[in-house]
């Protein structure tokens, strides 16, 4: 069969892209090796920029207005107290607590409602002929093999992207940064400990107190990348968390830990985000460390730009549109790379840090929170930048 756009991946990036394309009358197909249930049950970040919320409200679902929570600021804990960054006051914007699994559910429901072609649980995925008319091969959940020809193929297939790997080495550049720590993430049955998120730096490391619902909370603490979740009892987890937030004046409401995972931590970009008639979007092209919750927001911003440029390429037969994609998307990608790296380096402690390193870090935090310019710089980045313009 033949379709204008074939999309490998049916996570938030892939599904938002097919949604945006459908709205301008361009047909597409999404495939994913995971089942819908598996994606729904994968816990990811929980914070949306205003721009990401607006994309959901534009024809996907308005559930975010009912089930999401507007957060007008965050608390930065360090040096014995909390320092509030008031987003509303500083930049007239907010962030929204609305977990990625809910974004996914809304998008999957919207594609179904609008008659989108989305195939979950496929196997044997491969892509070919990327310099000409790309082909996407897969076996569907019923065991039937398919070959789809497309004008354009999009790799929105996450951090272990097969599409990214299909780009010859000589045709791409990869940028990496590794960190000497990871995050231990938990879901706990407890009431919220605070009305807003707490990013807390202590000499024992970093902790983030986030939320999910009135009865389920999401929290993270800095850990060794080789940490094993089985070595952490509930008591040890609450001990690690309180040790990092209590010195800054916060108290945790505790309860049974119902889920625990160690999250990988790295920065990665592959450029260009195009190879022939294949385009990469979201985690397939770049990864950020979780501090600041930019990953999902960046993926949605990518496909917003990509949908605009694909529409021009397909309807206007203007191929330079696809070259513009990398340039426009990377503008935001590198800002988010810097922001995520900066938030990480400002709040995490290093095992072999000197006394100087620790005092300097506190100096940086004092400089940012003690100045309106500093607070506004952080608030602007956290709530999200405008999308780079076409011209
Ligand atoms: C969450 C994760 C983040 O990385 C962050 O910066 C804020 C919130 C979360 O999962 O709730």
Automatic annotation (TrEMBL):
Keyword match Flavoprotein: yes
GCM domain residues: 320-391
UniProt cross-references to InterPro entries, sorted A to Z: FAD-bd (IPR002938), FAD/NAD-bd_sf (IPR036188), RIFMO-like (IPR050641), Tscrpt_reg_GCM (IPR003902)
Transmembrane residue ranges: none
Mitochondrion found in the keyword field: no
Entry superkingdom: Bacteria
Keyword line: FAD, Flavoprotein
NCBIfam families reported in the protein's UniProt record: PRK08243.1
Name assigned to this protein: 4-hydroxybenzoate 3-monooxygenase
Organism in which the protein naturally occurs: Nocardioides yefusunii
Organism phylogeny: Bacteria, Bacillati, Actinomycetota, Actinomycetes, Propionibacteriales
């Amino acid at each position: 069969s033949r379709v204008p756009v074939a999309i490998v991946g049916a996570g938030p990036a892939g599904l938002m892209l097919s949604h945006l394309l459908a709205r301008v009358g361009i047909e597409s197909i999404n495939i994913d090796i995971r089942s819908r249930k598996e994606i729904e049950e994968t816990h990811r970040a929980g914070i949306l920029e205003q721009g990401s919320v607006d994309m959901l409200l534009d024809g996907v679902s308005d559930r975010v207005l009912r089930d999401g929570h507007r957060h007008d600021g965050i608390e930065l804990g360090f040096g014995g107290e909390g320092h509030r960054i008031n987003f509303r006051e500083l930049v007239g914007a907010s962030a929204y607590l609305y977990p990625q699994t809910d974004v996914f559910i809304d998008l999957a429901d919207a594609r179904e409602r609008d008659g989108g072609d989305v195939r979950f649980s496929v196997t044997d995925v491969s892509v070919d002929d990327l310099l000409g008319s790309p082909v996407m091969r897969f076996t569907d959940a019923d065991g039937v093999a398919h070959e789809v020809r497309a004008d354009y193929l999009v790799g929105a297939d996450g951090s272990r992207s097969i599409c990214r790997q299909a780009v010859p080495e000589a045709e791409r550049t990869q940028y990496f940064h590794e960190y000497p720590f990871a995050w231990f993430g938990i879901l706990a049955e407890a009431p919220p400990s605070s009305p807003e998120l707490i990013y807390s730096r202590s000499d024992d490391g970093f902790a983030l107190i986030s939320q999910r619902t009135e009865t389920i909370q999401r929290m993270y603490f800095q850990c060794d990348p080789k940490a094993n979740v089985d070595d952490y009892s509930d008591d040890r987890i609450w001990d690690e968390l309180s040790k990092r937030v209590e010195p800054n004046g916060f108290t945790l409401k505790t309860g049974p830990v119902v889920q625990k995972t160690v999250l990988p931590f790295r920065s990665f970009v592959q450029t260009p985000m195009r190879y022939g008639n294949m385009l990469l979007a979201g985690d397939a092209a770049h990864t950020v460390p979780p501090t600041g919750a930019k990953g999902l927001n960046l993926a949605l911003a990518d496909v917003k730009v990509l949908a605009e440029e694909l529409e021009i390429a397909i309807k206007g037969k203007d191929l330079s549109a696809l070259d513009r994609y990398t340039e426009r998307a990377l503008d935001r990608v590198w800002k988010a790379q810097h922001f995520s790296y900066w938030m990480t380096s400002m709040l995490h402690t290093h095992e072999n840090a000197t006394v100087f390193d620790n005092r300097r870090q506190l100096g940086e935090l004092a400089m940012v929170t003690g100045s309106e310019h500093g607070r506004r710089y952080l608030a602007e980045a956290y709530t999200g930048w405008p999308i780079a313009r076409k011209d």
